[in-house]
Structures are given as C-alpha cells and as structure tokens.
Amino acid sequence: MAFKKRPEPGLPTRKQILDFIQNADGPAGKREIARAFALKGQEKIQLKALLKDMAEEGLIDGKRTAYHRMGGLPKVTVLRVIDIDEGEAIAVPDTWHPEDASPPPRIRLVEAKGKRNPMGALKKGDRVLSRTEETGSGWRGYPMKKLALRSEQMLGVVEIDKSGQGWLQPVDKRIRQSSKISDLGGAEAGELVLAEPIGKSVRAAVKVTEVLGEPLAPKAFSLIAIHKHGIPNHFEEETLGEAEAAAKLPLSHVDREDLRHLPIVAIDPSDARDHDDAIWAQPREDGGFDALVAIADVSFYVRPGGSIDREARKRGNSVYFPDRVVPMLPEILSADVCSLRSGEDRAAMACHMTIDAQGKVIDWRFTRAIVRIDEVIAYEEAQARIDEDRAGANLQGLWACWKALAAARKARDPLELELPERRVQLDAEGRITEIATRERLDAHRVVEDFMISANVAAAKALEAKVAPVVYRVHEAPSREKLVALKDYLATFDMKLAMGQVITPGLFNRMLKDISDEAEKALIMEAVLRSQTQAYYGPRNAGHFGLALGSYAHFTSPIRRYADLLVHRALVDAYHLEQPAPKGDIPATSGLSERDREDLGRVTDAISKAERRAMEAERETIDRYVAAWLASRVGEVFQTRITGVQKFGFFATIISLGGDGLVPVSTLGDERFDYDEKKQVLEGERSGTTYAIGQILPLRLAEANPLTGALKFELEEGGGRIEPRGKPAPLKHRGKHLVGNRGRPANIRHQGRGKKR
After folding, report:
1. What gap in Å lies between CA 304 and CA 599, rounded to an integer?
2. Alpha-carbon distance 190 to 184, whole Å?
3. pLDDT tens for residues 450-477?
4. What's this model's pTM, rounded to 2 decimal places?
5. How far apart are CA 567 and CA 298, in angstroms?
6. Which residues contact 575 (CB under 8 A, 6 or more apart)?
7. CA–CA dist 488, 235 (Å, integer)
8. What is residue 526's three-state secondary structure?
9. How far does the chain reach from its first CA to its final CA, in angstroms?
10. Which of 217, 161, 224 is nearest to 189 (CA)?
C-alpha cells in the first residue's frame, strides 16, 4: 500500500480516499480503507455513508469489494441541453439523477478547433454524445452526435374513441394535443395513468406504464402534482428503519438546559400535524423583554451522512397539499418524536433573546434544551382569548413583547404587499367543502415576528463565530425590472427615480399615497412582479423584502433542510454536540465535511426543491379551485386582471383566487391592440382598455379540474368561447361525468346559464 504511516486520526477526506484508491497496489474496498486510516466503531459507519455519497457523485464506482476512482465525468458521455447562453448550449450529464443532493456539473458545449459543429443549432432538451474535459474556466463539451430524445413520463387521462383506439389526454394545461396510445397496459377509459413515448418523433405514440386510478376521485389532485414534478413520496426500508432507531434515542438531561418550568406555547394552524416552534416572553424591569423561541432539535435525531439525512437532502422540504403532506422526514420523527407536543418532554434548540423597549434584539444565546410545551393553541383560539380578555399570562406576555417587535418592524419598514392566501377545506372523504382566502390575524403576526427575530439571531450568531451560514437571500430588484417598472409607472404619471437607493419603504410609500383601490391593485401587481425570487446560499446578500442585512432560516427544521443545516452549524460553532449512543446512528450532529467543503451545492439543490414544491402546491390548489367551480359554469364573478398579453388577458376571482384566461377573440368584433409597455389591451374603435389590476365582472365559461385551467368571457356582449371539436355525449363513470371516449367532462358555456 502507498500509506506507510498512520494518517491523522479521524475520518479521511474525499481527496485522501481518492489518493489511497489511486495509489493502492491491491484491492481498495471499505475494509482496506478503514484499515489504512485506522478507523473504528462510529468512524466505520461514517465511512460507509461517505463512500456511498462519493459513488453517487461519480467520484468512485459502487463496487464495495474494490472501489475504483472515476476521475470525474467520462471522456465521452451523453449530455442533455438545459439552457442556451448567448448562443452556446449549456448541458448536464444525462444520467445524473435530478434528485441527487449534489447538482450535476454544467458543461458549455463548444465546437472543436478546426471542426464544424456536426449538428447545427442545439435547443433545450436535446441529447448529444460528447467528448468532455475540465478546464480552468469550467467544463467543456465537444459534441459528436445528436441522439434521440429520451423517453419521459407523461401524466394524463385515457380516452377511448369509437373505433376503440386509446388516446392520452395530458393533465398539463401547457400541452394541448392528445397522444395515441399503442399499449393501454390494462388501463380503462377515464383512468389517470403514467405513460412514456415509444418513438422518436414529437407525435410519437405512447405506452401506459402505470395506472393511477380515478382522476377526479378525492385526493387525486395532489397525486397528479407529485407525479408530474417528480416529488419523492416514499421512504425506503433503510430510511424507515434508521428513523425507528433514531426515535428511540434517550433524551439525556446532560448538557441540556432544563426549560420545562416555562409556560411555553406553540401557536399553529388548527390542523397542523407537526409543531416546529414554540414561544415565550416576559417583561423586564427596564421595560424590555426576555424572550424564548424553542425549536425542535431535529439535528439530534437526524445525523449527517445517514439514510434519513440523504433522503431529506433530496426532498429539500416538506410539500403541503390540501389533502396530504409529503414530509421531509419519516412520520415517526416529523409528527411524533421531533414535534413539540404539549405536556411531553421534547428536545429543543433554544434561542434566548433580550429585547429592549423599542423592540430591538440586543442580545441572544443558543442552547440545547429540554422543554415541555404548556399548550398547543390554534391561531384563531389565541386571537379570541386576547380579543375577549381571557388570555393567560403567557399569551399576554407574548402580545406585549410583540407590540415592541412590531414597532421595530415598522421602523425597519419592510415590504408590505397584501397577498391573500387561498385555503381549501375538505371533509373526511376528501371532498371540497369550502375554498376561501385565509384570514390574517394578529396571532399570525405575533408568531411571524418572533420567528424573524430568532432567524436574524441565528445568522448573526454564526457570523460572530465566522461559521458557515445558510442564508435566506432576497436580492433587490434588478435594474432591468426596475426600468420596466419605471416605464409602467409613467403611464400613471408616477415617477421612479433610478438614481436613488431602492428600498422596500420606497414601494410602501408609493402604495400608501394611492387612494384609488383599483389603481392601487394595479401598482401592487407591478411592484410584486419587479421582485426577485428568494433563495438559499452561503454568501450573504441580505433580505430586501424584510429590510434585513443578515437572515437565515432556523425555525422549521422538521420541514426545511436549510434550517437543519443552520442548527448543525450552531452545534459546531457553540460546542453543543451531543454524541449519539453506540450503534448505527452517526456520532456527530454538526455539519458534515461535505457541507463545509462546498455549502453552495446543497443550497442550490434545496432552492430548486423549494421552487418545485411551490409549483406543485400552486397547481394543486388551481385544480381544486377548478373542481369547485365546475358546477358553477355560467355564473358571474368579480375578478381582477392579473396579466395581459396580445392573445387576451388573465383574471383571478377575487374571493377564490382561481386564475383564468379571457381570449381576445371573445372581446367582440373590433380589433384590440396590445401595448407591451403599458401592458394594456385597447379597443381600436371604442377605446375600451383591459389592464393589470382592473376589477370587472366576468362570466365563468369553462372549468377543467384535470389541468386547473379556467376560461372567462365578458358578462355582456363580445364573443362566446366555443368547444374545440364536436362535443361528445356524456355518460357516467362511477360518480363522475365523463365523455364518450372516457374523458372527464370539460364543461363549457354555450349561451347564458347553459352547461354542456
């Protein structure tokens, strides 16, 4: 062997392992690696997890008896184009699994010197066989041959025509064309299925690979989103077994602060299944407050490198649907052992804060603690106790402290946009009973301001130790978006000086000065569109929306992997380690070496997972809203225009939030011109205008629960939305109305009050 002396004690680095494998003059399996680095007990368990990670990253192969160094990407491999940057294609390895926590390398495809590109222009989604090399400025790929498109799963509903031919009707509203089914795979008309193309052309036939069941059955809409977005929703036996073992870890009092005497309360939604956080506050003699935010100590149970941890990294966060939760952690942890239940001893990470009379957090400290939650209270109940003057001392203390925090928030002047949240209420069978906007109470603001204060304290505590931080970053609007906003505001005779410092308060004052509610809604929509999307990252760029210089997510480790990483960083920085007892549980609860080496990899992955979850949740709500409205086609609703394009405008029902299109072809006989700068459609003869934010009554013309798509038409006059193709006779499949080819009825309006 190449190593002649005992290396430094502890788990070897990736580089040390690669060097050992490269220079070994015999088999280099797990046993040989452990012997070479004199690893024992827990270190061997950590080595096993590290080798698995390295195999997933492509650094070594997966042969346990004798690992071999992969040396990065193969010299020749298949790449998939994901973006076009200034005319050049950007690709990633086609076999790199998107759910892997470490993102694939981005490869810029270029022409080899002296050789012409054999394929011409490439576009997103293309697959190419390419030579690859790593240069000082990143990876380069030299295309050799374009390959057939890889088969991808499609989600849709089976239709059967009169000849008995099967067709797949996609549930994605962006796909308008049905696909011919060559193999039904046992599926029947009207069933929701997964299918994949079996040919190379765009219009290739498909074969059914999995039958999912009745598309309009209760709880089907979330299942559609889960499959469409590839959200992991099953835990492997290894992960569940590790969770069972972790749940049995004894809650030791050693090195834990005992806070069970404090009347800490958790204020959550009435239907919450897991409770990440609980709060407490009491007045100080100097007019300030002592406050505590207790957060579930997930890092004690979920150790880096274990199976639970790897699965949590892939998921990135829990995904919440009206009928179910796809949790980041197995239920025995998320809804039981880690959840801060009332009356039970629980492990917590405690953020102690000293808050002055003006609401400024002037001191903080972090400890690992044992808490016993005094009570879990719904937001509505907590608010009612305050309003009806029947709140106990614990709630009174929280509200008194919050008033100081609220004053500090007002002085900070964060961005204030009224963004109503839709709430879908279901009965025990999963049927919709109500859809409404969620009421915003002071109780929500109390919890929110305590959480924000703890998140700021966590970020600054880590900065004070020069420790790694997973920041929650919300950058200021880009110049491009500000110029677009400036041009739009000019149509209202409003000015936005580009030379001034852009702050959230600037937008707040702009909105405050508008008295006309319709115009205010227009400007609010424009301001919202100008904002950037928040993300996680290891480099601090501040949080523009909250008007904060340093911000991290610390308060929800049960449902967000970013928060778990912040907890682990605090464990390391403030020496809060509590080793697990001997067994299969990894010893450390701090950050792994992998995350310390490159925190950017995992923050990129969890930012993408967050966007995936947001899209899935939004689409599912849209489907529920469409299902709720399907029986109300022909009714007139008060709507607000949310987007304008040359082909029509989009509007949302004010009371429900359902979004739909009004095609320009239905606006009447006159021609409508589109002003892109003003984002307005204007009638050539009448001068009638349709602009973002405008409130107007519209008649619901179509509601499709499968896609979540709605269509509207003007209340009076204009054209009518006609069905595409000849309408099929309707029949029943179970409890649901379907067409003669087995598809769920796409209800359209033909004449006032009539349904087809």
Report:
1. 14
2. 12
3. 999 999 999 999 999 999 999 999 999 9
4. 0.73
5. 8
6. none
7. 49
8. helix
9. 79
10. 161
